[in-house]
Write a structure and sequence with these properties.
The chain has about 550 residues and is of the alpha/beta class. About 30% of the residues lie in helices and about 20% in strands. It contains 14 helices and 25 strands. It is globular.
């Protein structure tokens, strides 16, 4: 009699499955977690499909499945998602599966939590510290040792002494939940008429079910988070799980606080900075359906949800959703695919939608819910472009006269102003007046940028740097160098000359390490926040200060 064979996908850098025999006494379903031999080691794999009937005699060359794991099997929709992502990104299916199995199976058994409870027996020696512990535990409830010590304001040694005296008994506590169940009725929000209309549309899409993509578009401050919280509450009431994708690895404390204020508890979290043990517990809780809402970075898209009912991509335009190493994908686009495979609604949220999302919304592929007004009722700041071809700055200047006037008015009102220029250094080009020679990088032929603060000419492509020579290397002329164009340091010079009484702060990736620690404190005056570089994020004040914007390109 031919033995049963199955195809098993192993999370290694291979695109194919391996065929294994199923022992007669083992019951294995498609999607189950199993342990199989691979070479000289044991690996965890997923039963991907039933294998075709093997040729006679081939079974003797096939290896058996070693064991099955007590883990919820991967659902068909997640296996289909793995296949689709692998085909679309041209990545090995094993590597895509690896992103789904970051569950910490090598951590070993979890350490038991030890709790204490009062026995009613008085200790042999009573002290004030021991009295406080017994008073805390007088309600008969069990507490962790550390929790009891903290509530009573004593050291752990006091707890151990009471245990030795028999006044406290130890017991094993159940593991703490990854996250408490959110309550959709904990704090109903007061919404504006526009927000209520938008929330009704989102709740209807969630209640109706099925695949749909909705763009929640609105100006900054329109209360988009409060609106999509209503969609989350509908999914929770329906008993479905919710995934909220966030662009940052470390979720903002403000979002977690707002979620807790609305639902009574923060959501479960998933990102690469979680400790391994916490990641393993979160993974298992998601797979078993113990977590109702999880907020995470792009990798959370590959979690094995038991009953996923809604996906929300917050700040869908953010480039942080693009994975650049390993399996290269865009989490926003893959979220559309997963929602389509699972036949659930997807919500894209942004004040500045990406070009792809905007085109899909205009062509009718995505629904659009629009919030045109701020929640506070205040109008958004007016934006006005200054054409430097018709409003040329004064000779030797780079700020238009109307921009200078607007900044002056802001300073007179005691407000702050922010000027942004995405150019580091003093000037992007230095040339010789005598012969026209331009300083360029000897390695990549890019122009060298003049950095007066560092007293160097720097290539922003390869990092080459050199001090500015005393004379032209080509014609030997002296005092003939001229800086062309503005950089952050040159703009600071101009600002200091125009507004001598204002406090000026310059921030760039060249200066932020020293300047930020020394001078990042709130001051009324002019702030020049210029060129923060590609990997530096600057947060400045909470006052409306940007009046207009002027760049050399107009």
């Amino acid at each position: 009699m031919a033995r049963r064979t199955v195809e098993i996908l192993i999370p290694v850098a291979l695109d194919q499955t391996y065929t294994y025999c199923v022992p007669e006494a083992m019951n294995v379903a498609v999607g189950a977690f199993v342990t199989v031999p691979l070479g000289a080691r044991e690996c965890t794999g997923i039963v991907w499909a039933e294998a075709a009937q093997a040729r006679p005699g081939l079974h003797n060359r096939l290896k058996d499945i070693t064991a099955t794991l007590d883990v919820a099997p991967l659902k068909p929709e997640l296996r289909a998602f793995v296949d689709w992502v692998a085909d679309y990104t041209l990545a090995a299916r094993g590597m895509v599966l690896r992103m789904c199995l970051r569950r910490g199976e090598q951590l070993g058994p979890e350490r038991a939590r030890v709790g204490v409870r009062a026995t009613g027996q008085p200790p042999g020696r009573m002290t004030a510290a021991r009295g406080r512990v017994l008073a805390v535990l007088a309600d008969g409830l069990a507490r962790g040792k550390a929790d009891a010590a903290r509530e009573a304001g004593v050291s752990a040694g006091v707890i151990d002494g009471l245990i030795d005296d028999g006044a406290l008994a130890t017991l094993v506590l159940a593991p703490e939940p990854v996250a408490r169940a959110p309550d959709p009725s904990f704090q109903e929000l007061r919404l504006t008429p526009a927000q209520a209309t938008a929330a009704f549309s989102l709740r209807l899409a969630v209640a109706r079910g099925g695949y749909s993509v909705t763009l929640l578009d609105g100006v900054t401050g329109a209360g988009k988070t409060d609106v999509y919280f209503e969609a989350v509450s509908q999914a929770i009431r329906d008993g479905r799980q919710v995934l909220i994708l966030m662009p940052e690895i470390a979720l903002t404390a403000q979002f977690l606080e707002r979620f807790a204020a609305r639902f009574g508890t923060p959501p479960a979290q998933w990102h690469s900075q979680l400790p391994p043990r916490q990641r393993a517990r979160a993974w298992n809780a998601v797979a078993q359906g113990e977590v109702g809402v999880i907020a995470g970075a792009r990798s959370a898209l590959f979690l094995p949800f038991r009953d996923l009912g809604l996906i929300i991509v917050d700040e869908e335009h953010d480039p942080a959703y693009k994975q650049e190493d390993g399996v290269r994908y865009h989490a926003r686009d893959m979220a559309v695919v997963r929602a389509n495979i699972a036949r659930i609604p997807l919500l894209l949220v942004s004040a500045t939608p990406s070009i792809e999302t905007e085109v899909n919304a205009r062509r009718g592929r995505y629904d659009r819910v629009w919030l045109p007004d701020r929640f506070s009722g205040q109008p958004p700041p007016a934006l006005e472009a200054i054409d430097l071809r018709s409003e040329r700055p004064a000779p030797g200047r780079f700020l238009a006269a109307r921009l200078v006037e607007a900044v002056g008015h802001a300073l007179d009102r005691g407000e702050q102003a922010l000027l942004f220029l995405n150019r580091r250094g003093y000037a992007p080009l230095t040339l010789c007046r005598a012969c026209g020679m331009r300083f360029s990088c000897p390695n990549c032929d890019a122009w060298l940028v003049d950095h007066r603060f560092r007293r160097q000419l720097v290539c922003h492509h390869c990092g080459f740097a050199m001090p500015q020579p005393a004379q032209c290397p080509k014609c030997a002329a002296t005092d003939s160098f001229v800086a062309c164009g503005p950089g952050v340091e040159r703009l600071e010079e101009e600002v200091a000359a125009l507004f001598p009484s204002a406090r000026v702060l310059v921030l760039s990736s060249d200066l932020v390490a020293g300047v930020l620690s020394a001078r990042m404190h709130r001051k009324k005056g002019l702030r020049v926040l210029i060129d923060v570089g590609t990997n530096t994020e600057i947060v400045a004040g909470d006052r409306d200060g940007l009046v207009a914007c002027s760049t050399p390109s107009g």
